[in-house]
Amino acid sequence: MKIYTRSGDEGATALFGGGRVGKDHPRVDAYGDVDELNASLGMARSIQMIPRIDEVLVPVQRDLFAIGALLATPDLEKMRDHLTKARIDEQRIDELEKAIDACEQELEPLRSFIIPGGTPKAAALHVARTVCRRAERRVVHLASEVELPHLVVIYLNRLSDLLFMLARVANKRAGAGEVTW
């Protein structure tokens, strides 16, 4: 099988379960941003492997593949299948919250805004956080047009918080101070 199909040369793309939409369709924007987020996390993982941080990110990347598939699926029942197979549920949201709580145990409480940066690992996690926020906005926009499981928005919202905290932990573990605003 060749990687190119030429089927998108006119500006449309196929959806899971059938149908085609323009490549500028809100559904494509949403799953495209989730894909970019996944790639950003892959880049962050490739920079200075840090135990616990990278262990948290691999399952998140798997979750993002499932969320991307869900967003590319116009059929609501098939969407629910993707959520079930991927285990994107309240328990998974709780796991993200526990990871955030674990980070908080390691860090000083926030007293002001943090300027993104620090080590390359932390900076990459901050970039991933901003991509996550954009993906969240795109999913919220798509959800205003089509029915989507609300857990996707909750997941992305919680994930952006986790990425912020992981960036802070990466800086702390490397001995890099935080620059405040």
TrEMBL record:
<dbReference type="InterPro" id="IPR036451">
    <property type="entry name" value="CblAdoTrfase-like_sf"/>
</dbReference>
<keyword id="KW-0808">Transferase</keyword>
<comment type="similarity">
    <text>Belongs to the Cob(I)alamin adenosyltransferase family.</text>
</comment>
<dbReference type="Pfam" id="PF01923">
    <property type="entry name" value="Cob_adeno_trans"/>
</dbReference>
<feature type="coiled-coil region">
    <location>
        <begin position="79"/>
        <end position="106"/>
    </location>
</feature>
<comment type="pathway">
    <text>Cofactor biosynthesis; adenosylcobalamin biosynthesis; adenosylcobalamin from cob(II)yrinate a,c-diamide: step 2/7.</text>
</comment>
<keyword id="KW-0067">ATP-binding</keyword>
<keyword id="KW-0169">Cobalamin biosynthesis</keyword>
<keyword id="KW-0175">Coiled coil</keyword>
<keyword id="KW-0963">Cytoplasm</keyword>
<keyword id="KW-0547">Nucleotide-binding</keyword>
<dbReference type="GO" id="GO:0009236">
    <property type="term" value="P:cobalamin biosynthetic process"/>
</dbReference>
<protein>
    <recommendedName>
        <fullName>Corrinoid adenosyltransferase</fullName>
        <ecNumber>2.5.1.17</ecNumber>
    </recommendedName>
</protein>
<dbReference type="InterPro" id="IPR016030">
    <property type="entry name" value="CblAdoTrfase-like"/>
</dbReference>
<feature type="domain" description="Cobalamin adenosyltransferase-like">
    <location>
        <begin position="3"/>
        <end position="170"/>
    </location>
</feature>
<dbReference type="GO" id="GO:0008817">
    <property type="term" value="F:corrinoid adenosyltransferase activity"/>
</dbReference>
<dbReference type="InterPro" id="IPR029499">
    <property type="entry name" value="PduO-typ"/>
</dbReference>
<dbReference type="GO" id="GO:0005737">
    <property type="term" value="C:cytoplasm"/>
</dbReference>
<dbReference type="GO" id="GO:0005524">
    <property type="term" value="F:ATP binding"/>
</dbReference>
